[in-house]
Amino acid sequence: MSTDSTLTTFHLFPTLPIEIRLKIWSLNLSVPRAITILCNKDFIKGSAPGTVRTAKSWTTDTPSPPLLVVNRESRYEALTVYAPYFTTLSCPRPIYLSFSQDTLKFADGVLPYIPRTYLLEIQKIVLDTKDCAYFGFYHMETLKNMKRLREFAIYGERGAVVRGNDGNRYLHFLITDFEEAIDADPDWEYPTVRIFNGQTGKEERVIEGRAKFPEEEPPEE
C-alpha cells in the first residue's frame, strides 16, 4: 500500500458551491510572479534615411497561468486578472501578465522597444544593465514617464567605460543618476529604487519611493 498521502486530484471540486470554487480560483490568481521577458530585435528601413528599431518577437520561459486552461470557469476568472501582452505581427502568441502583481525583468537595452502603452501600465520592473555609466543618460526619462511604476530594481555591471580595480564605485554612477533626477524634479513621484551589484547580487542602495516634497494639505475652512 502506498504511503504517499499527497492529494493530486479532487474529483468533487465541480460539485462545490460556486462561492467556494471562486474563492479557490481567486487564491490561486493572487500569487505574484517574476517573469523574464526577452526581445528579438529587428531593424526596418524607414521613409527617412536610417532605420527604425522594432521588436520582432517577445518570449519568456515562464508558462502562462495554468487557470487559463483548466476549464471555462477558471479561464473566465483568470482573464479578470491577466491580460495578453507583447504580441507582434510575426509572433502573435501573447504573454499573459498582471501588471499590478507581476514583476517583469528585462535587459535595459530593451526599454526602447517596449510599447509606450505598456510602459504606462507597468508597476514592478527589474532591469539588468551592462553599463552603469550611461544608464541614466539613455533611460532615466523613460522611467520618469512610467507613471504607475511603484517598484524598480536594477542590477549593475561594470561595463566598458569603467576600468581598473575600483571595487563597487561604478555603481555610484547609478546612485548619483537617481539622486540627481529626484533633486531636479521635485514633482516626480518616483518608485522605490533598489540598486544591486550585478556580479554578487548584493543590494547596495535603497531609495524609498515617495514624493521628494509632499504637497501640504489645504487648511480646513
Automatic annotation (TrEMBL):
Residues 10-104 form the 2EXR domain. InterPro entries: 2EXR. PANTHER family: 2EXR DOMAIN-CONTAINING PROTEIN. This is 2EXR domain-containing protein. It comes from Venustampulla echinocandica. The lineage of its organism: Eukaryota, Fungi, Dikarya, Ascomycota, Pezizomycotina.
